[in-house]
Amino acid sequence: MFGRKKDEPSAQDPVDQLAADAAVKGAGKGAPTPKRKEQEAARKRPLVPTDRKASKEAERIAVQDQRQKMRQALDTGDEKYLPLRDKGPQKRFARDYVDARFSLGEYLMFGALLFVVISFVIPSGSNALGYILIGFWVMFLAVFADVFILSRKLRKGLTQKFGDIERGTVWYGSMRSLQFRRLRLPKPQVQRGQYPA
C-alpha cells in the first residue's frame, strides 16, 4: 500500500506486548476475566425498580438528607450546599458587605407594623394620624435613599474586586438590606463594621 512501511510497528503490537507481559507475571488476579455479557448484565438496572416501596423510602431519605445539609449551610455559610440563588463569590461578597453595615431598611417592617397598630388606636378624624402618616412616608423615603446609596457602594466594591458584576447581585444585596439582620438567610457571617476585603 502507499505510504505504509512493512517494518513500521502496528497499533496492535503494544497491545500484544502487554498481553504477553501479563501472561508472564502469572495468575495475579486469582480469577478469570468476566465475560462481556456478564459485565453488561451487572450494569443493567430496570427503569422501574422491583421494590417500589423501598425505592420511595430511599428517595425520601435522600431528599431529607439534602434538605438538612442545605439548612445547615444556611446557618454556617457553606458554599457547597447553599441554594443556587445564594451561591458564588459575588453573592458572598454582597452578603458580607450588607451584613457589615447598619441599614435603615431592617426596621421598615417594624415601622409599618407600628403605623398599622397606631392607625387602629387613633380615631380617623384626628390630626395626629396625618402626622403619623407623614412620619411613615419620611421613613420610607429615608430607607429608599439608604438602599440607593448601598447599591452604588456595593456596585463599586464588586467592580473593584471582580471586574464584571453577575446579573442580579446588586439587587440581591439591596433586598437583603431590607431584612431584619437576625432573620437573614444565609445567616450573617461577619460582625457590623467588618467589611469584606
Can you put this structure into words, describing what you see?
With 197 residues, the protein is mainly alpha-helical. The chain has seven helices and no strands. It has helices at residues 12-25, 36-43, 52-76, 89-100, 108-121, 127-162, 169-177. The termini are far apart. The model has no long low-confidence stretch (mean pLDDT 85).
In short:
The chain is mainly alpha-helical. It contains 7 helices and no strands. The relative contact order is 0.12.
Helix and strand arrangement:
Elements: H1 12-25, H2 36-43, H3 52-76, H4 89-100, H5 108-121, H6 127-162, H7 169-177
What form results from the Cα inertia axes?
A: elongated
Secondary-structure element series: HHHHHHH
Low-confidence spans: pLDDT under 50, at least 5 residues? none
The overall average pLDDT, rounded, is 85
- The number of helical runs is 7
Integer-rounded radius of gyration: 32 Å
The profile of the biggest β sheet is:
none
Counting DSSP E segments of at least 2 residues, the number of strands comes to 0
Distance between the termini: 68 Å
